[in-house]
Amino acid sequence: MKPFTRVLSAFAVGILLQGGVYLYLDQYMFAPTTEFNVAGASKDDTKNFPDVKEGTKYVSYDRQFMAVVTENSLKIYKANESKPTTIDLKGRSISYFNWMPDRNYAIMGLYDSRDVVMARLNADDPEHEVDTKLEDLPKGSKIVDAAYSEATNVVYMKVKVQEHVYRIYRTDANYDTRRVYMQATDIGHIGVFYDEDNFFYDNVKTGDIFMFNGIEGGWRVINPPGRFRLIGVDTDKTIYIARVDEDNNALTVYTGKLGVGFKPVYKYNHPTTFNELKLSDVKDIIKNGSEETKKVTEDDTSSKSSNTSDSKKKS
Known about the structure:
Layout: H1 3-29, E1 56-59, E2 65-70, E3 73-78, E4 85-86, E5 93-99, E6 105-111, E7 116-122, E8 130-134, E9 142-149, E10 154-162, E11 165-171, E12 177-180, E13 187-192, E14 198-203, E15 208-213, E16 219-221, E17 228-233, E18 239-244, E19 249-257, E20 261-273, H2 279-288, E21 293-295, H3 302-314
Antiparallel strand pairs: 1-2, 2-3, 3-4, 5-6, 6-7, 7-8, 9-10, 10-11, 11-12, 13-14, 14-15, 15-16, 17-18, 18-19, 19-20, 20-21
């Protein structure tokens, strides 16, 4: 074979191998499973694991792994096995932990006196974590919440920098990590669509709910007039919000979708502390009802709440 032909053949083989590697990474390493499960496993479904007394327990979506978390320790148990794998935190503390909703990976918020890190942990190989350092944060900052988009592999992190002051950081499958600037600092609940880079959050102070597009960078308010808080986002892109009073007590729950709007579905018989609401409980009430709530098609608290909200925003 002539030298030029050999070089050309080697180049072609190299291109094919590189393409194969990229295809593997895209289809297997970074791809979500075919079925999305945002709810995941019940946190107290620990029947296949040892009865561990210490720490907070987190069960993976397929119930194959259980994490036992304290501020300074992390142990991973495999189903039907008694001996855990103890993770070396390298002197760092844990401020946030949760399993991804569609695979046996966990997202952790770690911190020490110098750095704030988001770590991705593979339960099948827990001793080899992938760390993403967050830059330009004041001392004492820590990750306190995260929202993960399964199909886009984008993670939004809520970082507490001081009391009632938060920042949002975004990272993707390529570990490109940056701060994204929101229209609020006192950020409450966060959420993201499973298959689109549309991020949702609420402003605790003003009672507004925002959508941020991570690709284009645009944002807009999505709630009706009045004071509202974000409860959560479902896999079918239904957005759950609650009308609240000045003390952040939930009055009425709404559901809606982008481009369609929101409608009330039930109201509480008595004002309910918003921070006690869970998306799973709200969905159960919508489906089965509750003695503490009443189904509605119109919100008779909206006029009073809207007037109160408008007067506060003008002041």
